Amino acid sequence: MTTPVSFRRRPAWAGRNYTLLTTAAVVTNLGSHGALIAAAFAVLEAGGDGGDVGLVAAARTLPLVLFLLIGGAVADRLPRHHVMVAANTLNCLSQAAFAVLVLAGEAHLWQMMLLSALGGTGQAFFGPASEGMLLSSVTAEQAGRAFALFRFASQGAVMGGAALGGVLVALIGPGWVLAVDAVAFAIAGGLRAFLDVSHVPDREPGHGMLADLRDGWREFIGRTWLWAIVVQFSLVNAVIVAADAVYGPQVARDSLGGAGPWGLALALYGAGNAVGALIMTRWKPRRLLLVGVLCVFPFALPSAALAVPTPLAVLCVTMFVSGVSIEVFGVSWMTALHQEIPEEKLSRVSAYDWFGSVAMVPLATALAGPAESAAGRTAALWGCAALCTAATAAVLCVRDVRTLTRRGTPVTLTKPDAEPGSADAEGPVGRLG
Cα dihedral sign for 200, 286, 404, 296? Predict the structure, then answer.
């Protein structure tokens, strides 16, 4: 008698939460990365200039900075999937209103800034909850592969969303692309409503919001590698977002042919992300952060290509290379967090990570227009590339960044009152071997 062959639809370690989180991330990225292009061109079509594009981008990131720490504390106190669904609902409603205004031809700058700010508020609560949920959804043994596959699926959606978004903006206008993003948030929120948080241990009574924030701060500041790389990315993210959100659409309009070519370039960046994630499903570098940080250097290439500006083919190559390299960093970073941070503090630590990483983005996007007026777009873009390179070189001076190594098991629960520098706060001493 022949034994029937059994086919698994997903890996054995990919449980319900991991599968739902991955599916929802794909849906969200398909909509949101087209919407990023749509929002920029909505501003330009309404008669705005580069400074106005920067103001709308800054309006989204400012509440992200203001509410991230609160969002992290809330996500470690309440069921994380409830926080995620509520944030998705806010994003859905704000994008739907944005779409209606653009389609009606009644979108004014202050309205676009307000709706972008509501979207940023939703992201401030969603981000820490989402990262904490993902990090707690897999075991230490499968963490690297799981995060790589998650990012592969997510960045494949980024690629598709950016390419499709650029084409749709050119064909039917930015309003309809924003409407699609609203629908995507609604679908993703519905999927995330089915996440299971029963595995999260009950919180001890008596901890207030400020106590939670202090506890998360001790976890964050007690690890040199953690805060050093967050400081690095506070600068890297600021200049790269300014280049992509403010200068990129203008270069595309003036030199590359408009939204379609810019969407193609962003899609190649997404393709690079997908390839980088695929590489990381097989590659497990021992020196996690050293390899990851070295791979941040190519992130400066697209800014340099836009500064020239190079032909579209060259820009697409630089976007692809930077996408591959930054994904190596991303998987290494998530693996390090999963390995070093106790589960019950993941969202709070992630909130400090996010907060530091985006703290300077509103300032950079708001100043992008004045910087262009003062020094010229070319000089501003070369400055973005130089600052990204300098910040990355500086963080390699931190010993922990060069020496933190991969282990087989994550850090166990820590005491609530652990002090920075103690064994409870730092984890096993051998992590730097």
Answer: negative
Nearest to 302 by CA among 246, 240, 253, 256: 240
Indicate the pTM of the whole model.
0.65
Supply 19's token pair.
């599968």
pLDDT digits (tens, 9 = 90+) for 363-414: 887 788 888 888 888 899 999 999 999 999 999 999 999 998 887 554 444 3
d(C-alpha 142, C-alpha 291), whole Å: 19
Residue 49, SS3?
coil
pLDDT of residue 137: 72
Q: What is the mean pLDDT of residues 205-231?
A: 79
Distance CA 70, CA 209 (A): 8
Residue 7: CA atoms inside 13 Å, Cβ hemisphere, count? 1
Q: What is each CA distance from 132 to 43, 84, 93, in whole angstroms?
A: 34, 11, 25
* Phi, psi for residue 136 in degrees, rounded to 5: -90, 5
CB distance 50 to 369 below 8 Å: yes
